[in-house]
Amino acid sequence: MLKAKNLSFSVTEEGKTRKIIDDISFEVKPGEMLVITGPNGSGKSTLVKLLMGIEKASQGSIVLDGGEVSDMSINERAKAGMGYAFQQPPRFKGMTVKKLLAIAAGGSLSETSCCDLLSGVGLCAREYLNRQVDDTLSGGEMKRIEIATVLAGKHKICLFDEPEAGIDLWSFSMLVKQFEKIHREKKESIIVISHQEKLINMADRIMLLKGGKIEKIGTRDEVSKDLFAGGGFFGCNKAE
Amino acid sequence: MEIDKITQQVLDVIDEEGFKQEGAYNLRQNGYALCHGDTEHIKIKKRTDGHQGIDVYISSEAKDETVHIPVVVTNSGVTDLVYNDFYVEDGASVTIVAGCGIHNSGCNDSRHDGVHSFHIGKGANVTYTEKHYGAGEGTGARILNPVTNIYLKEDAVFTLDTAQIEGVDSTDRKTHVELLEGAKIIVTERLMTHDKQTAVSDMDVVLAGTGSSAQIISRSVAKGESVQSFHPKAIGNAGCHAHIQCDSIIMEKAKVASIPEINANHIDAAIIHEAAIGRINNDQMMKLQTLGLSEEEAEKVIVEAFLN
């Protein structure tokens, strides 16, 4: 499905070059859910941005369904079947929720479908259809609408950058159900950056990232020792 | 009355409801009143003071009625100065659909200066929509200079929705509003300029009555080498509320100036002004690209939504 080979990404600050992603290779199989976790600054967000083309890899290749996408623009990758949910979704003055969801669905979407998508992410649908995606929405509302835009499209693989950040526990439960739906029913591949145990437990495989390198990748049983190394889990809310 | 093809095309753009020679209407073309109609509650009369234009009388019996008063200029080199006065009686409820379109296919400038004065009675509710649009392949400029004076009596409500869509080479807009006790005005101004177009919008809102309020939202997009200037001014002479918000997207080599002015002459006057000018947000572009839109498509969607 998706293969990343020898991916690297560096930034230059004050004349010094720093590697954010350091020669990473991995594969996501069709229908597989991969959760990427790791401490802050380990390169998780940068890695999924490289996959989506938001950042340009300084080295390496990305192959989707046998086709090279490394040189493709963001929208070409989207058309090739990649979906992406921002950690901090942008706001649009004048754009209604309904319009944004319609764009996400490829041009048009019935009111009923819009409502289903919004309900799926824990929003009282009809109240939101004609609201603007602007400062009048809270961070949590924005986040849920962002996830709905990804759910609106048809993808081969969906990338989610910390979908749980900024949303309440009840909505998080709804979100978990949506991931189950994508994973079990739609059988789309998913890459999720998360620190949440519930999502980690859903994963087919877990990637532990540290210092821009893959520390470990495997099933929960294979990775759990490394996840809880030193008696603590990376950012996980154990109450969850 | 038969309407020619070009005039109809312009009407289709400036009158979203669809102009029909039915109900209350007045169509002005190339400096002359082409056709008009009255209803029981809305009477349109030619001015008798020597000025070009009409007086529109709306009775208090008018409830949710509509009057269409479009202006179309299709001849190159026309300069049209028109005075339209509206007298809306207490308690009336009406929508006025105006708009001006210039189709200039020649090398001479075409210009329309419309001076509209609204005298709104107590408790009346008026929605005024106005679209300005320029088209035609000629080198002559398309110039629109609207002057809008609005006088609101006690508890009257006026919703002004004004939009300059495209193709207007030069505009100098003057808006003056006076509000008595409990009166309310809601203004939405949308403006787009491109190429070497210029736009100036000056607006004075005088809140003279206790409990009066004003909400003014101005959104503009400046492309190419166009130049825009906004000068909204709110004057609170009584216990009142006013909120002015000016947002502009600047693109390419355009220039935008926003010069807010708020004056409080009463201790209970609460007036807020917000202004922001900036380029299209990169995150917005990327978000739409992740949904499959190209850069050009994303930019178009952002601009259209912003001006929506």
Task: Describe how the helices and strands are arranged.
The complex is a heterodimer of chains A (240) and B (308).
Chain A: E1 2-13, E2 16-28, E3 33-37, H1 44-52, E4 59-64, E5 67-68, H2 74-79, E6 82-85, H3 97-104, H4 111-120, H5 125-128, H6 139-152, E7 157-161, H7 169-185, E8 189-193, H8 197-202, E9 205-210, E10 213-218, H9 220-227
Chain B: H1 5-14, E1 24-29, E2 32-37, E3 42-46, E4 53-58, E5 65-68, E6 71-73, E7 79-88, E8 93-97, E9 100-103, E10 110-120, E11 125-135, E12 142-144, E13 147-152, E14 157-164, E15 170-179, E16 184-193, E17 198-207, E18 212-222, E19 227-236, E20 240-250, E21 255-258, E22 261-264, E23 269-278, H2 282-290, H3 295-306
Parallel strand pairs in B: 1-5, 1-6, 4-7, 5-8, 6-9, 7-10, 8-11, 9-11, 10-12, 10-13, 11-14, 12-15, 13-15, 14-16, 15-17, 16-18, 17-19, 18-20, 19-21, 19-22, 20-23
Antiparallel strand pairs in B: 1-2, 3-4
Largest sheet of chain B: 11 strands, mixed
What oligomeric assembly is this protein in?
Answer: heterodimer
State which percent range the strand residues of chain B make up: over 45%
Strand-and-helix sequence of chain A, N→C? Answer: EEEHEEHEHHHHEHEHEEH
Helix content of chain A: 25-40%
Strand segment tally of chain B: 23
Shape of chain B: globular
**SSE string of chain B, helices as H and strands as E:** HEEEEEEEEEEEEEEEEEEEEEEEHH
Number of helices of chain B: 3
Give the CATH architecture of chain A.
Answer: 3-Layer(aba) Sandwich
User: Which protein chains make the most extensive interface, counting residues with beta carbons within 8 Å of the other chain's beta carbons?
Assistant: A-B, 26 and 22 residues
Give start-end ranges of low-pLDDT stretches of chain A: 235-240
Summing up helix and strand content along with how strands pair, one would put the structural category of chain A as alpha/beta
The separation of the N and C termini of chain B measures 33 Å
